[in-house]
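All the exercises in this workshop are built on plain-text protein records. A record pairs a protein's sequence with a compact description of its fold. The structure tokens are whole numbers drawn from a learned vocabulary of backbone shapes. Once this layout is familiar, the rest of the handout is easier to follow. An example says more than a description, so a record of this kind follows.
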Amino acid sequence: MRHDAVRPRHGITREECTVAAAAPVWSVDPRTGKRREQVAVEATAAEVDGAVRAAHAARDALADRGVRAALLRRAAGLLDEAGEAVIEAADAETALGPGRLTGELARTTYQLRSFADLVEEGAFLDVRIDHADPGLTPPRPDLRRYKIPLGVVAVYSASNFPLAFSVPGGDTASALAAGCPVVVKAHPDHPATSELCAALLRRAADETGLPPGVLHLVHGFQAGIDLVRHPLVAAAGFTGSVRGGRALYDAAAARPHPIPFHGELGSLNPVVVTEAAAAERAEQIGAGLAGSMTLGTGQFCVKPGLVLAPAGPAGDRLLTSLTDAVSDTEAGVMLDRRMREAFLGGVRGRAELPDVEAPVTAGAGGEHTVSAGFLTVPAARLTAEGPHDLLLEECFGPVTVVARYTDEAEIGAVLARLPGNLSATLHLSDAETAGTDGDGLGARLLARVTPLAGRVVVNGWPTGVAVAPAQHHGGPYPATTSTATSVGGTAVERWLRPVAYQDTPPALLPPELRDAGPLGLPRRIDGRPEAG
């Protein structure tokens, strides 16, 4: 999920930025590189200000949880009804294909409905009531705590998920579920899709009696900067590149009143294949790796970018299987020309390093396509700082690096040098997963990778992030800038803050905090779950 949301200004004046912000926004076909249509113009500073102020004014309209749930369900319904047009627009701008986009649309509407259920159930409010107890030492006053929405949320769309991580995606859905109006900064790779989805969400708002200010859409990189700096924006969610995300993160922190910035920036997603696992099923692992690293032309944020595989015969069999499967993969179109050029340059730079080999060379598959490939390197080259550190950085596209290790110590030395990741994957043998391997290698590797990632996968592949209550899509920096998740029900927590009321007269309390609160709302009373 990569994009550069901002660029260095290099001394550009405010007047020049204002002129640039009026530039047309074009929809471009990545299969041909040609413009399709002009769909908008980049937002001026005044237009960003107007959008944020309208969103701020709509906060009270989202106070009712029933209305919020109705909005989310109606948005899902309208997206389903317009599915053919949405998929056609997204495919024309991203080349991701109708099959992939059909699944992504289903995921997006499921996510919206899941948040509607979460809003109605109400546990995310974390209601806690502690009645006064003068007999305690010190005496306890009457305390009642729950969570309230932060305010206007800025959402920065992703390039590679034009639906699930863009205008109608998880950040928008979770923010609306929390009761926060949203201003979305559209991604330049799919502006027409963004406009279509925004119109559907605004229609859903109108049909549920909400003002259009609950959701706005703006275009342009300068608009993205203006948005995160706006004093009425209370939080931001971002999915993209380290460079773009870090610039916005720094801008959010540099405000007179800093705001939470929940950014997903970059991830290598390491995989460790034990020698015993390779001996058991080298061919299966090689084929699975090929499918995972080339899925969506390698443009998934959880694509496995570094694989630690054993040296020796079992590892050789794995590489043979990987070679066969990757060689059979058709060339694909990347999301835009800039990403294609970055991919080709990144592969070249890595392939030129000493002791790096390319059993299948990734490169240009045609004028607008790329072919998949992979690189190999001795793991010893990655255990100390040097030029091979480039192999420990994400290369967005259909390529992975296979580091051949000789023993467990080399595995540990390489893992110790990795930054934070969204995922880490282990491929273990039957004995290692059962804990009957004698020396406990499976348990030791699990302990090694857990600090590195937000999600640990065993004997599977990280591509595919299920929308589920227990999901965590995040990880230590630079995978994300916070400890929160952007997928699953707990994503709503990013847009809330707790507030406690002390000795407050019942008539003044929010209904959720009164002794006779709303029926069915989960609450903890004096430390215990309230009886149903």
Notes: The two ends are 43 Å apart (CA to CA). Confidence is low (pLDDT under 50) at residues 1-21. The chain is about 35% helix and 20% strand. The CA atoms of residues 130 and 484 lie 27 Å apart.
